Amino acid sequence: MADDTSRDRRNTKGRQRNRGQSSGQRQYSANAPSQRKRSADPARLTAFQILQAVTTEDAYANLILPTRIRRNKLDRQDAAFATELTYGTLRSLGTYDAILGKCVDRPIKKLDKPVLDALRLGVHQLLNMRVPDHAALDTTVALVRAQVGAGPSGLVNAVLRKVTQHTMDEWLEQLAPGTSDTDLSIRYAHPTWILRAIKQSLVTHGRNPDDFHRVLEANNIAPELNLIALPGIGDLEPVLEYGAESSTLAPDAAVFSGGDAGRIPGVADGSVRVQDIGSQLTARALAGARDVRQGEVWLDMSAGPGGKAAVLASLAQIQGATLQANDVSEHRTKLVQQALRVVDENVWTTSVAEGQALGDDPANAQRFDRILLDAPCTGLGALRRRPESRWRRTPQDLATLTQLQSQLLDAAVAMLKPGGLLAYVTCSPQIAETTLQVSDVMKRHPEVQLLDSATAIQSVAKHHDAESMLRRDTITSGEDDSNMVQLWPDQHRTDAMFFALLTR
After folding, report:
1. Quick one: where's region Disordered (predicted)?
2. Which run of H or of E encompasses 454?
3. Residue among 100, 228, 315, 427 flagged as catalytic
4. Would you call 427 a catalytic residue per the annotation?
5. Which of 30, 238, 276, 367 has CA atoms 20 to 30 A from the CA of 195?
6. Would 226 be classed as within a structural domain?
């Protein structure tokens, strides 16, 4: 019969061996050591690499994931898995960290970042993907063993086994049973300041505040891939034959679910682009609001990385106009040039300058017939597509950005010809970044007037009848006779784009 000292399991130095003792019964892997995975599969490795780049380098997942998918030579199925694993994990980071906080014996911020990222990937597979528990456990442990080391793999195995003791609903009921902002923040994976900003935005733009939960849920749904065949350049038919569906909202547009965008016909050569349909409509509305006179000169003030600029340039090519695409960053300007490469080089030019400096240049005074100001903003309307931004932005960013937006609007007014058109666009519904900016610029510049922005959007849409999602009563900001547009992910299946069309 074993005595107490044998059960105590102390080594010769008097140190206690705790392995297998914390839960009363030692937990063994389902596989023998020789059967355990010792390398990461390509899809999970890709997701891990993206999370590491986001958490350690402030990278943007939507910009680096396509490149990494191709570099790691993922097939279509693995590319879809890696995409869902990456975006799903980033979207729910706050919720997963709250769950892990109950399963780790130390503050999770003290975990090494690679270990924490691997745990987050494991939690998403266990609680929000149709991956069997044993597969999620084995593959995550293998990923850590291969990428971090054998030591941390034991910790990851133990922590994820604790996660499996509850379903997602059970975890949420335990961690966030109430309706306080703190509980809603955990339940819907939005920082509390963003929750409050969305609440305020709904009221400001004339929506029922009870729709609050619908917007939060829409922000957490994996968005469809939106595509545009550049007008006069791209061909939508091969895209539809590949499996995409024609958009009901915008011409030359399609929606696609899953897979690597780089394999879609036309994307590699740039004639077909990935771009949110809300963004497509705002660029089209500026170009189509009035008949274009031959020789018009257009400006995209903040063009990087080039999505709206490509749409504007292709429309300028058709209508006999030219486009100057400007950005403050040389790196982003190179991305713009890449986006514009399929358009006749005589139609467009690029420049690198701060928007305020551009407006101060006497050579640009009242020079442009149409100006797109897609202003730098908090991005609260694009949380579906840029999931890391909800954890990266802070309330302090708002003050800096709104000041910049005001300065850029003043510069745009200085460069706009009398009778010209200025489109002010943000991917945020925040009142300080949207309606207040428009009302303030008109106070500062009495010569500026607001045009019927809703009609401008509807005139370039594919359908805008009584049955369309783009009915006037759903897209106007505020009352039905409002002249500003606010789109919403839950109503329109687009980013929460704001659009106001102004003239001088």
Report:
1. 1-42
2. helix 453-460
3. 427
4. yes
5. 276
6. no
